[in-house]
Amino acid sequence: MIHRGSCHCGAVRIEVEAPEDLEVVECNCSICSRTGYLHLIVPKRAMRLLAGEESLTLYTFNTGTAKHYFCRVCGCKPFYVPRSHPEGYSVNLRCLDRSTIRSVSVRPFDGANWEAARATLPPLSA
After folding, report:
1. pTM over cut 0.85
2. Region 73-99: what's the mean pLDDT?
3. How many CA within 13 A on the CB side of residue 98?
4. Tell me: domain 2-120, CATH 3.30.413.10, correct?
5. Cα separation of 103 and 91, whole Å?
6. Is residue 16 a contact partner of residue 2, using CB atoms and an 8 Å limit?
7. Where are the domains of the chain?
8. Mean pLDDT of 20-33
9. Which residues pair with 26 in a beta bridge?
10. Could you point out which of 25, 38, 42, 113 has its C-alpha 20 to 30 Å from the C-alpha of 79?
11. What is the rounded average pLDDT of the residues 35-46?
């Protein structure tokens, strides 16, 4: 299934290939809890930036591994490269159009204790 989404203003538009029934991760780290981000982690080949590359701004912190891309117009973060899976993307479920999603299950992740909890995340599917 192809799901489409965008930032709030629509300048950044994406599509992601994923099942109709989604499992997402809710992380309690400082940035995710402040922004309400729900992670749909996918391989790089499954996510495409359709429009708005020029509207993206990059934010990094700590190890610099995670690449947080925000729309410079409205401030939304529809996707980023996660520290846990730098070979993939984390797409924000809250930025996806819900019309193509049948169900969502949310799994908690203790990102506040990232080093200890990292092993509990599943690897990316091939």
Report:
1. yes
2. 96
3. 3
4. no
5. 16
6. yes
7. 2-120
8. 94
9. 38, 108
10. 113
11. 96
